Amino acid sequence: ETGVTQTPRHLVMGMTNKKSLKCEQHLGHNAMYWYKQSAKKPLELMFVYSLEERVENNSVPSRFSPECPNSSHLFLHLHTLQPEDSALYLCASSFGGGRSYNEQFFGPGTRLTVL
Amino acid sequence: EDQVTQSPEALRLQEGESSSLNCSYTVSGLRGLFWYRQDPGKGPEFLFTLYSAGEEKEKERLKATLTKKESFLHITAPKPEDSATYLCAVQARLRYGSSNTGKLIFGQGTTLQVKP
Q: I need a labelling partner for A87 at 20 to 30 A (CA). Which of A7, A70, A75, B85 fits?
């Protein structure tokens, strides 16, 4: 195990539903990330939180809303999603905010299907 | 524009048949090149970090090398359990804020299949 957990592991939702993805890291890191991985495409960075402050949102649609209440927990709130949002959503954590490098460690991901 | 290209897209090897995976990159000010392994339905697993040209790192049957324009992941005498997708990523500076927290730019990956 990498020390980063995600729940749920699988999620099926309709386009009108509201759901949340949860990520927790046990590595003592202070930066957390959400990535989207679609079939046949590279991992795409969605959001970065460093020291609990969002530093980049990478032009993600507003139907995705992140929340980082502390350095160990990260949420991704979902509402009125589209079928093309179906993908594997990955959380990662690292040291940041002053270190010269940041190896990111990933959780197992949430497989999201939007009907 | 920061970019990472991996080749080949897919590679099939017989057990024991050594080969190399390529990762070509363009980035303004390389702050680290990372290799990950990803099994189907799972998150990427960290393998190596390389920081400067000429650097090499090894782990079991894997060896990663770095030049100013590309990195290679050499697989020596692979086994079926080495079958996975191998991802390469470079660290780029974020566009906003003063934090040194970087963003990873990933390639599309090389899917390796090792047959017994």
A: A70
Q: Which helix (H) or strand (E) holds B18?
A: none
How far, in Å, CA of A24 to CA of A37, rounded? 19
CA distance linking residue B87 with residue A102, whole number of Å: 16
Are A45 and A106 in contact by the 8 Å Cβ rule? The answer is no
Q: Is the CB of residue A92 less than 8 Å from the CB of residue A105?
A: yes
Selecting from B43, B46, B99 the residue whose C-beta is nearest the C-beta of A55 gives: B99
Please check whether residue A19 is in contact with residue A78, taking contact to mean a CB–CB distance below 8 angstroms.
yes
Cross-strand pairs, A4: A25
Query: How far does Cα B72 stand from its chain's mean position?
Result: 7
* Whole-number Å distance between alpha carbons of A9 and B78: 31
In sequence order, the 6+-apart residues with CB closer than 8 A to the CB of B8 are B21, B22, B110
Q: Tell me: the pLDDT tens digits for A22-45?
A: 999 999 998 899 999 998 889 999
Neighbours of A37 (CB within 10 A): 21
A2 touches chain B (CB under 8 A): yes
pLDDT tens-digit map of B52-110 = 899 999 999 999 999 999 999 999 999 999 999 999 999 876 655 545 556 789 999 99
B15 to chain A nearest CA, in Å?
A: 26
